[in-house]
Every structure is written in C-alpha cells, then in structure tokens.
Design goal:
Helices cover 41% and strands 11% of the residues. By secondary structure, it is of the alpha/beta class.
Length: 362
C-alpha cells in the first residue's frame, strides 16, 4: 500500500514503486549488535554466499532502471550493488545509519564497554563479504568498510546535538547537517479530551510492557491526553478507558498535534522527537532499542526531555510529565531547538535542491 507512505503523492503520474529486495533470515545465537558492522552481519553480510542473491537482485534492478541518482536512507546493499555503475549517490538520514568515515567505525552502544577485538573482527568479516561480491562483478575492492557508505553527499536530517556521531564527523567534506524534516502534516486530528493540567500527546507501540505502565499513569493522571497506540488490544483499550485519555490507532497529524500539546510522550523515535522539538515541546521518552536510547540520551543531555527505562515508568513518569507540561527548564530547552529550526533553511527544500543538482550532474 503506497497511501500510508506517500499520502496524496501515491497517485502522482511520475511515481513508480518497485519492490526492494529484502533480507528476511534472522541471525540467531549472537549478542545484540553494537557496531554498524554487526548490524550488517545480522542483515546477510556474514558471508558472500548468503548475500549473493540479495546483492545481485539490487544490481539487476539498478542496471534495469539506470537512475541518474540513488537516494538512500539506509540501503547498504543497494549502495554495494551500485559500485561501478554510472549514477550519483546521496545518503539522507538522522545519522544512526550514516556512521562516520573512520576505520573501524565506532561502537554505538556507548553505555557499555565493547572489546576492540570484537569491533575489528566484525568489520573485517563484513568487509571480506563486500569485497568477495565486488570481485565477482569485476569491481575494485573496498579499502575499509566505511567506503560502503561513500556518497556524493551525506545529508543528516537532524541537529548536531542529537547526532550520536557528531564529534567523530569533523572534517568530512561531503557530510552536511540540514536539520530535521517537518513533522507529518497529514493524518488524524482528534479533539482533546477534558483535563485539568495541560495536554500530553503520546505515540507508543503496544508491545513493550512500558506502554501499558505508561497508559496506567496517563489514565490516573490529570492531563488531557491523546495517545496513538496502533494495534492496541481491545481489552487494553477498555481497561484504560478514561474521560481525559483518548486512545486512537490511526496515524496522527504530528505537526499540528505537537503544536497543540504541552509535552510529548514517545519511545524516542527520531520522527516523533523531531516533530516535538520543532514545535518547542519537551519529550518524555521510553526507548525500546539502541537507536532510540541514543536519541533519548542526547535529548536529555540537551535538557529538552527525560528518558525512563521500563522499570522506572510507574514511579517516575508522573513527576516527569508534570515537569514537562509545567513549562519550566525542559520547555525552555525544547524551545531553543525550535528557534534553531526557524533560523535554518527548510530541510525538505534543501534536500530536494541537492537531489536535483546531483541528478543533473552538478
């Protein structure tokens, strides 16, 4: 279904959608990935035999389409398959999947020590896989794994303060911070229920235990809350029914609702965090995985929000939501992000201009 991803553009006569080759076999018996190379090993890069079909499918697709420009958010195998083909390349993303151009690339689990030999071993394994495939296509090898992500432009759609690799990117001539894209300006706009102490916009997943704990807090608290929890069981909706808690399952108009809210509660996904900070709204975060935890740590370090781990939700979430809604230091720090965004060129327009220039050969 193109509608949820493209909105009104789904029917545009110049849009053609192709099924991307995907890797679906999980890698079992390994610790959680701690480096970009280990992410690749979990996505088929353990050896060339595993990766051959996926990489060749990408290369065949690119050879058939013959694009002038390949724009990738996170598509390392597409970039590998494009090596040696006549096209420009642009990477666009929030930074987690665009690690710095260093050998080896730094681990991202900054909260726990990662042995240097583990970092080197994963990088050497993934590099060997890439080079074996490149050799089979008659292409020159990569000297280092970070060359897999080489591009004519690397556009980071975030602020440096939220980029986990900001300090390591100094001196990269093709890497540029454009700032975050505007929040989603389509989707549902439910009305706010009654409440006596500010508005909270929540965007949560139904799976983690932290979500049900958070809904219990929202149900018992004084805030007017709109909570989007896609796929929430009917029994849980009934359990958390409240005059001041409206539970919805459809995608929300994040740009407008964040502007109406006093604070945002989420898992620290980049899109939701950016939508909140673009409106100057503080964020209380319940991260579920490593990328979200990295984002949450940086928002908290900037003073624009707070993070909670799963077991901390029942005891600490009420006080943090009160602080976020009250308009004190967290609101002031979040407002500085919004002011910074106003002073920057429009990120979507800047990205489009770079794409047009590269596609035109400039």
């Amino acid at each position: 279904m193109l509608g949820p991803a493209f909105g009104p553009l789904a029917a545009h006569p110049r849009l053609r959608a192709w099924q991307a080759p995907v890797w679906q076999l999980p890698l079992a018996g390994q610790p959680p990935p701690a480096t970009y190379a280990e992410l690749l090993l979990h996505a088929g890069y353990l050896d060339a035999t595993r990766l051959q079909g996926l990489a060749q499918a990408w290369r065949t697709l690119l050879q058939a389409l013959q694009p002038d420009l390949l724009v990738a958010d996170h598509a390392p195998t597409a970039l590998l398959a494009a090596r040696g083909l006549p096209m420009r390349r642009l990477l666009a993303g929030t930074g987690f999947f665009v690690p710095p151009q260093r050998q080896p690339m730094p681990p991202f689990r900054e909260w726990t020590p990662i042995a240097p030999h583990r970092v080197r071993a994963a990088e050497e394994r993934a590099l060997a896989t890439c080079n074996q495939l490149l050799s089979s296509w008659g292409e020159p090898p990569l000297a280092a794994l970070h060359e897999l992500l080489a591009a004519d432009a690397r556009c980071l759609l975030t602020w440096p303060a939220l980029d986990a690799y900001a300090a390591a990117r100094e001196g990269e001539p093709t890497t540029h911070y454009l700032g975050p894209l505007p929040g989603r300006d389509q989707g549902a706009l439910p009305g706010w229920p009654a409440g006596g102490f500010g508005r909270v916009l929540a965007y949560l997943r139904p799976e983690p235990a932290a979500t049900e704990a958070a809904l219990s807090v929202l149900q018992a608290g004084p805030w007017s809350t709109v909570a989007c929890v896609p796929g929430l069981a009917v029994s849980l909706k009934q359990r958390h029914a409240s005059p001041h808690l409206q539970l919805v399952g459809m995608p929300l108009n994040m740009a407008r609702l964040a502007a109406q809210a006093d604070a945002v509660l989420c898992h620290a996904g980049a899109g939701t965090v950016h939508a909140a900070l673009l409106q100057g709204r503080p964020v209380v975060m319940l991260p579920m995985q490593a990328e979200q935890l990295l984002t949450a740590r940086r928002v908290q370090a900037a003073g624009a929000g707070a993070l909670l781990l799963e077991g901390e939700v029942p005891a600490q979430l009420p006080a943090l939501l009160h602080a976020a809604v009250a308009g004190g230091p967290m609101r002031q720090a979040a407002a500085r992000f919004a002011q910074q965004a106003v002073a920057q060129p429009d990120a979507a327009q800047a990205l489009a201009q770079r794409c047009v220039a590269l596609a035109s050969g400039v």
